[in-house]
């Protein structure tokens, strides 16, 4: 496991409780002591650390503890023959290990930890009375102890801990390695942070490498004066960047598919050509299990119930989308147009600066309101899981950001048709905005951390008057507790900090693509910004923030559709920019050049949709592996079913009961989940 044995004790979870003094006679009834003993009873290794004002309970789990709880959770893992089966600790050698050599991924380990600590329940038939600083707490029968203590405010937080050995290794090989501009240890990032963050950095690295071509082309256009040939060079640049964007996202899908196969993420096995990553089928509205179970034997009623559930889900989603779109059109659009118009007609720079300050304050308020409304609407949609809810939130909130980011640029481009003014606006939006955004994004966590440290020291001095000298934080776990979380600016319950990182990329991509013909040099600026973004984001995750909670989403989710939408918008906007470049007199005559632009626009739209067939979305080796696994699964199930039919074995609901050597029954699934 990269030189780190699996039996090495690594504390990966921490709990925070208030520091207090307890008497020996009350120790057996103290709720924190009971919690610690329960942790040890389920097989966890516990270490208790005293901080300045709190006590920290660090948890580690041996491999056997994780394996047995994974079997209890009926966790599905990939076997050596490519079939995903329910994990069994006794059959550990049958399951494939992770790229770093570990048996469980970080996401799987985190799920096991949560199951272990939150499934500690009162197994007695009566309530248990616990104490905390003289206060009595009733632990009800069948209820979770940790949830009860969280409700009482005794357990302040539960958060993942950084692994110092792996963290320092990633700092050297990734965050501080500026010599390899776009090279990243993606497998190590996946092992340490989980799937979602690893996919983001894989996307960012590939996006930056691919940007070298349009950046070089744009730099040539900016440095060389082509004179009258610019009427031919700019259309060629426009065609090339559209083809570049379309090809990039097709090859990204291939890379995403290859990463999923390399990391042994679950696939739904099928012998057909189409497949979906499990849990990520975009247009499916799966009915809840209770609806299927309670539908009864009547097939007609069952069909009606499922259809009703499906169409009500679509209608609810459509209703919510209409509410958001109408709100943007009726409320935000007039505000954005008014700001753009006032900024254009005002002459004083001081007044413009004041207007911009007011605009930024108001737009932040608009965005927060829009995010809260979107979250309330999403709660009434029939979304399968948290990832689907997060995707729905991304679509709705991006509409707000799209309006506030681009409407001013559209205003200058459509009404004034001045390339010089448009370039000035783009430079302001791209360079100044991205520089300020990176400064705020990377300095704000450090400022928050410094303020929390100062407040903790000040409170310590207030409680214990007479302390002399500098107060030091002796434990790393307390320093991690004071660090900010990797949270989203819009909704912490559905999204983490990746929302802001992907939003920044999407807004940048839209700006450089939709106005490529007006400012080709923007690609070079964006490439330099993304090279710095990779390292600063890595440093932020490894040094400035707590270790994020892992997410198992295997794709970039809703952002892929947003990027595709921006490509379509760029075809339309750049065609309009080329028309204005040809039609400088504003007479809109359908001359050969203008007609050629209109034809080119339609051809590019056809190419955009045709390339999805030209470039397969998964590599040949991934497809061959999937087909091989599907065939093996079919063969195994066929043999088991034939034996069952012949009476040698009995199957119950798709599970085969076999006899173990000791005479007991063992249940095994013959279906690939």
From TrEMBL:
Keywords: Membrane, Transmembrane, Transmembrane helix. InterPro entries: Anoctamin, Anoctamin_TM. One of its GO terms (cellular component) is membrane. It is a multi-pass membrane protein. The chain crosses the membrane at residues 197-220, 232-252, 322-341, 353-371, 392-414, 505-531, 552-582, 594-615. It is found in: Membrane. Its main location: membrane. Residues 189-628 form the Anoctamin transmembrane domain. One of its GO terms (molecular function) is chloride channel activity. Signal peptide: none annotated. It comes from the Eukaryota. This is Anoctamin transmembrane domain-containing protein.
